[in-house]
């Protein structure tokens, strides 16, 4: 299908890229239909709203800069998106990019969980106090590369 | 809003299986104990608010992204360097 996107303008997406978020994203509860797209700059992805072209979130696999990241959320958040085994589950963090890109942060406290087989998504809230709303990606990645 | 006065160790019941007790009171801080089934989510309101606010900020990010490697250009460590820990600055 053809969609309007914030990063790429009009673009064709595959039906398999469509993800339904029954509860939306926190603060955007009314937007439930998204497309998951590769960014042209890996390891980033775009989560593009299909309802409002101007709303798109940048996602990253948190393990890229925090190999020790573990998802600890209430079971009902997983059952909300029909996750039965961890193989179905993909975990992303939403990235905030300020003017100085090197200060970009990832939200590890509010992971975006996606059931890739059933194409259902949900933003959850981590029960692990180590993970916060703003983790500086460049700094933390530099520290693990040491 | 329903307002109930409770003393330390007194509880209220919400629905059939959610118990909230006052565990401790010190100055202007009240410690609550919450006993609820696993599928009932309990968060501090600030956590919820912080994630909402961060999402709004994230949604305002520009539609263009830098190449990931370029983020390290001004750091002491360049992505092309082998991560072997033998680097010396002169």
Description:
The complex is a heterodimer of chains A (146) and B (90). By secondary structure, chain A is mainly beta. Helix content of chain A is 10%, strand content 36%. In chain A, the strands form 2 sheets. In chain A, strands 3, 4, 5, 6, 7, 8, 9 and 10 form an 8-stranded antiparallel β-sheet that branches. The model of chain A has no long low-confidence stretch (mean pLDDT 94). Chain B has 90 residues and is α+β, with helices and mostly antiparallel strands. Chain B is built from 1 helix and 3 strands, in the order βββα. Chain B has one helix spanning 45-59, and strands spanning 11-14, 18-26, 29-35. In chain B, strands 1-2-3 form a 3-stranded antiparallel β-sheet, with no helix packed on it. In chain B, β2 and β3 (29-35) form a beta hairpin. The termini of chain B are far apart. Residues 75-90 of chain B have low confidence and may be disordered.
Brief overview:
Chain A has 146 residues and is mainly beta.
Describe the secondary structure blueprint for this structure.
The complex is a heterodimer of chains A (146) and B (90).
Chain A: E1 2-5, E2 9-12, E3 18-20, E4 33-38, E5 44-49, E6 56-60, H1 75-80, E7 89-96, E8 105-115, E9 120-123, E10 135-136, H2 137-145
Antiparallel strand pairs in A: 1-2, 3-4, 4-5, 5-6, 6-7, 7-8, 8-9, 8-10
Chain B: E1 11-14, E2 18-26, E3 29-35, H1 45-59
Antiparallel strand pairs in B: 1-2, 2-3
- The separation of the N and C termini of chain B measures 67 Å
DSSP strand count of chain B: 3
Radius of gyration of chain A, rounded? Answer: 15 Å
**Oligomer type:** heterodimer
> Approximately how much beta-strand content do the residues of chain B carry?
15-25%
Average pLDDT over all residues of chain B = 82
The profile of the biggest β sheet of chain B is:
3 strands, antiparallel
Q: Which residue ranges of chain B are poorly predicted, with pLDDT under 50 across at least 5 consecutive positions?
A: 75-90
Structural class of chain A: mainly beta
Q: State the largest interface.
A: A-B, 40 and 31 residues
């Amino acid at each position: 299908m053809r969609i309007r996107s914030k990063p790429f303008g009009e673009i064709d997406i595959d039906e398999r890229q469509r993800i339904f978020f029954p509860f939306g994203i926190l603060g955007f509860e009314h937007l439930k239909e998204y497309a998951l797209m590769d960014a042209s700059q890996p390891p980033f992805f775009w989560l593009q709203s299909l309802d409002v072209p101007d709303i798109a979130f940048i996602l990253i696999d948190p393990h890229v800069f925090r190999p020790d990241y573990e998802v600890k959320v209430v079971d009902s958040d997983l059952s909300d998106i029909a996750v039965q085994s961890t193989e179905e589950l993909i975990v992303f963090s939403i990235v905030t990019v300020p003017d100085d890109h090197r200060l970009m942060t990832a939200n590890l406290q509010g992971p975006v969980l996606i059931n890739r087989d059933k194409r259902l998504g949900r933003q959850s809230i981590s029960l692990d106090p180590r993970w916060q709303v703003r983790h500086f990606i460049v700094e933390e990645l530099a520290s693990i590369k040491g | 809003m329903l307002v109930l006065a409770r003393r330390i160790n007194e509880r209220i019941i919400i629905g059939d299986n959610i118990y909230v007790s006052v565990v401790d009171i010190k100055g202007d801080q009240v410690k609550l104990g919450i006993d609820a089934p696993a599928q009932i989510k309990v968060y501090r309101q600030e956590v919820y608010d912080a994630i909402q606010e961060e999402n709004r900020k994230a949604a305002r990010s520009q539609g263009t992204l830098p190449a990931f490697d370029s983020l390290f250009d001004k750091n002491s460590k360049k992505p092309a360097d082998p991560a072997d820990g033998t680097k010396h600055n002169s």
